[in-house]
Each structure stands twice: as structure tokens, then as C-alpha cells.
Amino acid sequence: MRGVFQLQKSYFSQKAIFSLFSPQKLPYTVIGFGILVRLVQYLFNRSLWNDEAALALNIINRSYLELLQPLDYNQGAPIGFLVVEKLAVQVFGNNEYALRLFPFVSAIASLFIFSELAKKCLQSRQAAIIALTLFSTVHIWLQFATETKQYSSDVAIAVILYFILIGIERQQIKLRQILEFGVVGAIAVWFSHPAVFILAGIGTSYLFISLFQQKFLFSLKLLAIYAIWTFSFGLSYFISLRNIASNQSLFKSWAGRGTFPTSIWDFGWLFNAFVEFFHIPLGLPDIFLGIAILAFFSGCISLWFQNRAILLTLLAPILVTFFAAYLQKYPFSGRLVIFLIPFLSFSLQKEQWQFDR
């Protein structure tokens, strides 16, 4: 009799395990795995590394008002991020767990929001799961999901902005929507430096589309939203970003790593930066780079025939970031461009989109 009970227990255990990989539950399994990996890394509580420690000293030793001033040790971070970090230290104490809490929470939130975004955009459940799996297992993002740096929250804000703004051209925009979209973007630029590239890319895309379709009234409404974004970014630049932009030590440090092209005609840099993007931050080994790049172009071609508006909104943030690098205003390298991972995850999908025209 005991053997029968053990057999039944084993059967139901196996059935429960297999049910986790059913089409309905697989997205939650992927999210659960992503949370588990990040939680283990967070609880491991490793020591702060150089950049983390340098930024942590600024957060701990300065008042809220002093965080508005240029940071010591050649550090730069969004004001909103610094304020949340300072608050976490005051509430939970001066320790690694408190300093890494906001990046950790941002990483977990990103998984859920990206899952909803994938279901919203992709018709195929399989494609949505593939995109979610790719997004949740990127190595460099796993690393920065539990580090006292702003790169994890950069990803979260990128996903949130795309989730909110995707399909905006299909909405009836009234004064309330103008204010809502405007406030979202206005807040984002205070919490994420590259948020301006996402807003500029998606915003320019929809403005171009509306003008091409001769929806001039809609274009004016978009411009009203963009005016709010521009004002907020200008204020952020005046208070904080201009200090980072004028930091020659920081600029030379990144320029010395080849993160900027030498001239507007430096197409060799453009090619290398594009290929390297699939290596870092996506973390693909060299043997798979060709396949990934082929999948990227295949996905772009597929989207060209399905929905060119979606293709434009996916590629525009990447193109704007490259443009900023050509202006030598933002390094296109490694951890500084992991916020583009959500857009690349979708670009690799050769699947039917929900927003068919």
C-alpha cells in the first residue's frame, strides 16, 4: 500500500512539474525563473565593486540637495534614481541590501511588464514566450539587476514607456491624454538618462506617421505632448545633465574605450558597434552572432511587410542612440545600452503583430 501511495505521489509531482511548462503557465514559469535567479543574486549580498562603491559614497554622504550637484569620483546618475536610493538607505539602513533594492525591484517589475507587452504586441503565444525568455535571461542585465547602478531601472523605464506609448496613433487623444502622456515622459527623464532617446525615437516615429497620413490635428496634439517632454528634459539638463556632459574626465574615459566614432564617416565603428551589441549586452557567444544578426534583419523585413509603423517605433530608439554616439553625447557600449534590449527582443521576432494595419 505504501508503494502505491508513493507511486501516486510521484505521478502527481511529475504532473505538477509538467504543468509548469504548459502554454498557459509557461510565461509565469519564465518569470518565476527570472525572479529566482535575481533573488539568489540579491540575497548573495556580494561586496560593492568599484563603480558601485563610488556611487554609494555619494548617496550615503550627501543630502538630497547635494545630490543635485556634480557627483564625486566621476560618477553620473539620474536625479530620480539618486533620490530613491537615498530614501532606501534612510529607511532600511546603510547596507548593500538597501542600496540594491531599487535596481532589484525594477528588474522584477520589468519581467511582468515586458510579459504583458509581449502579449499585447505579438499574436503568437510562442513568439511572446521566446521574446520574454530572451529578455529575462540576458546576462549583463542579470548582473546589473542587483547592483547599485541605474542600468536596471533604465530597462524598467524603457519597457514602461513602450508599453504606454505603443499604439498611441490609434487613440483618441484629448486634453486628459495629452497631460497623461506628457507627465509620464516628463517623469521618465528624471529617472533614466536614456529615456530621452526612447521618447525621441518613438515620438519622432509617430509624428512622422501622422504627418504622412495627413492627420495634422493629431500631429499638433503629439507636439503638445512632446513640448511637455522637452520642457522637463531641458530642466533636467540644466540642473544635472549639463554637469555630466561637461565632465571631460568621464568623456575621455569612455572615448578611450572606442564607444564613440571618430567622425561622421566612421562606418567601421558603426559596423563594429552594431555587431558588438549582439555580443554585449545580449551576451551571445561569437558562434551565434551571425544567426542573431540574420534573425534581426529577418524580423525587420517581416515587420516591413506587416506593419511599418511598429518597425519604425522599434528601430527609432536604437537609431537615436547611435545618433547620440555620433554626436559624442552618449557612449554606445555595454551596460549603457542595455535599455535597448526590449526593442531588440521584439525585432528578432519574425511573427505576426497584434497592431496590423
TrEMBL record:
**Domain Glycosyltransferase RgtA/B/C/D-like spans what residues?**
79-227
- Which stretches are transmembrane? 26-44, 97-115, 127-145, 151-169, 181-212, 218-239, 260-281, 287-305, 310-326, 332-348
Does the record carry Membrane as a key word? yes
Asked whether the keyword Transmembrane is assigned, the reply is yes
Query: What keywords appear on the UniProt entry?
Result: Membrane, Transmembrane, Transmembrane helix
Instruction: Output this protein's name.
Output: Glycosyltransferase RgtA/B/C/D-like domain-containing protein
Q: Which organism's genome codes for this protein?
A: Chroococcidiopsis thermalis (strain PCC 7203)
Q: What is the lineage of its organism?
A: Bacteria, Bacillati, Cyanobacteriota, Cyanophyceae, Chroococcidiopsidales
